[in-house]
Amino acid sequence: MEQLKNLLQEYQSCVETALDKWLPASNLQPQHLHEAMRYAVLGEGKRIRPVLVYATGHVFDVNRCALDAPASAVEIIHAYSLIHDDLPAMDDDDLRRGRPTCHKAFDEATAILAGDSLQALAFHILAHDSNMIISADQRIRMIDILAQASGSRGMAGGQAIDLASVGKELNITELENMHIHKTGALIRASVELGALSQPDIDPESFDRVSHFAKCIGLAFQVQDDILDIESDTETLGKPQGSDMQRNKPTYPNLLGLDSAKDVAKQLHEEAISGLSDFDEKADPLRCIADYIVQRNK
Fold this sequence. Notes:
By secondary structure, the chain is mainly α. It contains 15 helices and 2 strands.
């Protein structure tokens, strides 16, 4: 377990270095915009999505430097989404990762531009990184997966459903659909980009890790809903109870807290079962799945 923990910390260190390289320097014009981009991305974060890229690449013996670009791209997309989610027109949050949100630290216009710029940067990275030793077709497929996971059929669409659902009662199928798009799509894309970093990935193995990612992506959101009730603002790094205050549909509200925990457990078990055909090289993925349902922030 200690060896796995060290490996995951190595992955976090790798993506921090790669992100610092890809982000524009804060002394480049327009300085204020570049400062905001770096502020949003390089602040303390769990880095779950890029770690999933590295861990999946590990399963398929991908050289780690070939994973820096997709790992950076998914984290940059995630950071852009948080900037926009926190805006007054969206969730209107003042705190993110234990410090002021981007629009509070800078201003609303700069925050919007920072999010826009980060989204564009993510696709630039996938298009241009020379360490990705894959075919042009595979590179295009990666870009397409990330684009779909980010847009109206993925994360942005999930956020639109979320905003439209405030104050409404959703059934379990509708709630699951919302979270598969809002949270799950980018987590699934992270695993799929890691798998596609192997030039000779076989379709069956790709489908197995993709299903694993679908399960943990949904489990991640269920656990988030649980923590909104059970954790506190200092631990979460964002306002505790905000979903309840906004009357948002959540798993605990719909099913009850104990049943929501059962759902997270079932999703975790299904995810682990999906990795049964892989050897110990998939242990980092198994470790991440454990973390997702055991975390307290």
